[in-house]
Amino acid sequence: MYRRGVTFLAAFLLQLCRPVCSAVQPGCRLGSLRREGVVVEGDVIIGGTFGVHENKMFPEINYTQQPQRAQCQSFSFRNYRWLHAMIFAIKQINENPELLPNISLGYGLYDSCDVIPRGLEGAMWLVSGQDELVPNYRCHDTAPLAAIVGDSASSVSIPMARLLGLYGYPQISYFATAPTLSNKREFPSFFRTIPSDAVQGKGLARLASRLRWTWVGVLTDDDDYGQGIAREFQQEALRLGICVEFLELVPILYSHSRTQRLVEVIKASTAKAIAVFSWKTYLYPIMEEIHRQNVTGKTWLASEAWSTAQALSDNRAFEMLTGTIGFTIHRGTLPGFKDYLLSVHPFRNPQDIFLRLFWEQAFGCSWQGDGAGVRLCTGSEDLAGLKNIFLDVSSLRLTYNTYNAVYAVAQALHDLQACSPGEGPFDGGACADVKDFEPWQILHYLRKVRFKNPEGEEVYFDENGDPPALYDIVNWQPTPAGDIQYVKVGSYDFRAPPGQELFLDESAIVWPGGEMQVPRSVCSESCLPGWRTALRRGQPVCCFDCIPCSVGEISNQTDSTKCLRCPSDQWSNTRQDACVPRLVEFLSYEEPLGASLASLAVLASLLPASILGVFLRHRHSPIVKANNRQLSYVLLGALALCPLCSLIFIGRPSPASCMLRQTAFAIVFTLGVSCVLAKTLMVVIAFKASIPGSGLRRWVGSRLPNTVASVGTLVQVGICGAWLGLASPYPENNTTSHVARIVLECNEGSALAFWCMLGYMGVLASVSFVVAFLARRLPDSFNEAKFITFSMLVFVSVWLSFIPAYMSTGGKYMVAVEIFAILSSSMGLLACIFFPKCYVILLRPERNTRDHLMGKGAAAARKN
User: Fold this and answer.
1) Which of 103, 361, 609, 643 could cross-link to 601 by cystine, CB 3.0-4.6 Å?
2) Which CATH superfamily is domain 33-55+72-194+336-369+388-460 in?
């Protein structure tokens, strides 16, 4: 049913064409001529359909009148050269005794005008072998038809392939690239010498990515060719991070309203790069409207269907196409082809029904000479003096494809002819007769053909009937004469290893306006390293805002989608694009602050040691013996050790130093404060015991102060022991308090134990202060209580100031604050308690008497 339906449809389309076609000569005679085609005799016929005329304008169908036939008014020198490439190849083959010996090839050529009805008509004309087209019938007096070379447009080749596939006739296209034609279930007899758009679409997306275009528009034909390549392009573009701003369909039947709307979309687009997958015939009216509306500032990415389209590049009004870059067919060379083209002449080639028309177009003359002001063609015109694309053999692309297609058919026929009886591929080892074979038999050999053409390049088809994918990349560059030349600037070879398929020489490209820099086509400017992209709601992924990375995070690539957090031992640099090692911070002896504090600590330790030496030397003097001499020695020793404890705070923290620094300081300082408390109690008790009948006499002596000092210190030792046993301090790397530094510090282990230790010392100091304050009114000659009051006032003031300062700082400055508090409080105790005594011992020895200490010396002095 499918075959019958397609056959009926083809016959119906051909009958629609019949009223507007020229009169035909019925019969099966080879060499018959008609306005659109010609057949030249041979043992085997190779057919070919070429758009000798280009259909630039299509009549708009409004369904209010009978549709008109497309007007094929423009003769294409370029397409006509393709036709002669087929004739040239057949001429070479017929002259080659090693290829198809004793077999002459003939050919049938038809002008399809690049439109579907004409393409189907040409296919049926070649299959039927007669002018009167009768589906499912071929004249038996004609030579067998081996294959049909053509057509150029995918839109024409697809219906031709459906029709020819029903009968098994091979079709080899030199320019049809639609991916759907690779489907062998739907198009079993279709081959091509041009790569499929499935490869081209991916390659064009990679080219756009190489040019750093992430925001493009797409124009594509409203047919299988356009939709197929657009689908492949979009899939690969999505994988490469390229967004399509719009996708508009180019009408294959001209519509003024659709054309205007499409151009308005292009004009309003923010994309600077427009990828166009369209046949030149359909694209021409779009470019005319773009020129009329003066749309500029766009760079065009061309598929091979129009990347070397003379109809577009020759129109000097289309200046906006300068700078176009795109894929084109791989260029080949055909030695001898230029001489062949120069040899064609209407008088020597009367069978070429198109040659007289070519002559008229090329030389601006007429064979009839009936046009007003038109000179008569004589045949003596100089073909070599022409400067048109027909004689330009410098960039043979589709011409080369046509040449390879003919040789592929000839090679298949050669293999068929070389078959040995009994060893053939058909039932029972049968072979086919090269002068009388069925189309499906030559199709068998064509699928397996693999050879090198006369130029040494290998020609073969894969399982889908496609050749190896190889493209040249061309750039439309203006010449000094104002014309357009196609300059090769790269290549794309799908056979190359992954990542090496695309080669592009960007320095050789000329962009619109003569610019040498690649135009930018992006929705959003790239986010530099140190920033990340943030997608805009409701817009494609290529449209984003740039947000700086947070502190401690980096992005080291352009357009990073997220920022990476630096490792704990590193931090972000100022540009946020690299992680750098953090500075290690601790209070060291090498830095000025640490060295200064260490020096002060040593000096602060030497001073009480010196005073201790003075006290030992004058140990028998009354002022030293007063108020428990041994307790003063212990207090001076504690005050000498306290500054030295601060040295443990300086330097790189270690487990031992972290465990010792707070506990050693706490125990030594508590010993000193306990001694002060004991001395304060002794001052009070000694004064009260001097009153007659006082019961405090029994507490006078060294037992009570020693007990107070010992018990007070042992309580602190217990607190510190529990601290070390349950949650001892340990060194740690603090990476949170400073953004770009690692603070080496001691973790106190238990904050409760730390504050209990400080709180206990505060309690002892407060008790001493209170007791000394209450005893401040004792006789002036016995002024120990006043000195202790001042010392405790200094001590309490220092440590009350220490708490907020300690809590508000961090790192090495926190350690410095504690060292300063230790040194200040130690010096405060030393100065207030022992400096007055040293003054008496060293500078006023006359006061260092028992009577003076008891107040008698002062009374005697007043009497005198």
Assistant:
1) 643
2) Response regulator (3.40.50.2300)
